[in-house]
Amino acid sequence: MSMRKFAVTPGFEVGGTMFRPEQLAVLGSVVGEDARIEMTGFKQLYIEMEEEQMEEAQRLLRAAGLQVHPAGFVTKSLIACHFCRGAEEAGLDVARALDEAIAGHPVPSPLRIGYAGCALGTSEPLLKDIAVIKMRDKYDMYVGGEPRGLKALLAQQLHAGLEAEELVPIIRSLIAIFQKQGKKKEKFSRFVDRITLEKLRELTASARMETAG
Predict the structure, then answer these.
(1) DSSP H helical segments within 114-195, as ranges?
(2) Which of 20, 101, 107, 121 is the most buried (most CB within 10 A)?
């Protein structure tokens, strides 16, 4: 029996990342008795199940309103805050656009991208590989956070005062740079140290200018 793994998330809304009871019921009914379901630190569930049943199970999960993503060395779905200041003020639509644009790209090591709708940072954005923080009507972007180990690191500011429409091009540019220049299994925080913050700022400046143009 061949087993394969994939990720499932309900997305996010005001209040956080929340599964509805009927979604969990569908999940439990379609993955099979031999499936393994793991809660991850990415706000995703990893589902390991029989490969021959996976396509139909994923179809039913999507029909229930769940997002299905690859597991492993990919960019994870956006890890967002609870939008405690409300959907409009905290930028829920911007976060959803980011989530749609960034999830599931193959990378040298798993990439966590965080979002916070205000400076309170309840989603702990500065411990993510890439982070976006809404500051009034602008956005600041940080890179290189590392939550694990005895030498945990806070992310460093890459760009400040970004417009909403600049976020996706810059993050896509960062992903592409990591895909091309990252070493296999290299943590993004170490990649930032090796490439340097200044070089990443220079390499992503073109994406920002293209948006402005």
Answers:
(1) 164-181, 188-195
(2) 107
Query: Whole-angstrom Cα distance, residue 109 to residue 115?
Result: 20
Residue 85 is classified by DSSP as: T
Strand bridging mode 113-116 / 130-135: parallel
> Among all chains, which residue has been given the structure tokens 């925080």?
189
Residues in the chain: 213
CB atoms within 10 A of CB 126: 19
Identify the residue whose tokens are 């939550």: 147
Q: Where are the beta strands (DSSP E) in 62-207?
A: 67-70, 79-80, 113-116, 130-135, 138-143, 156-162
Q: What is the pLDDT of residues 150-162, one digit of tens each?
A: 888 999 999 999 9
How many angstroms separate the CA atoms of 158 and 139, rounded?
A: 11
**Greatest alpha-carbon span in the chain:** 54
Say how far apart CA 188 and CA 49 lie, in whole Å: 29
Q: pTM of the predicted model, to two decimals?
A: 0.92
Name the residue type at position 54: M
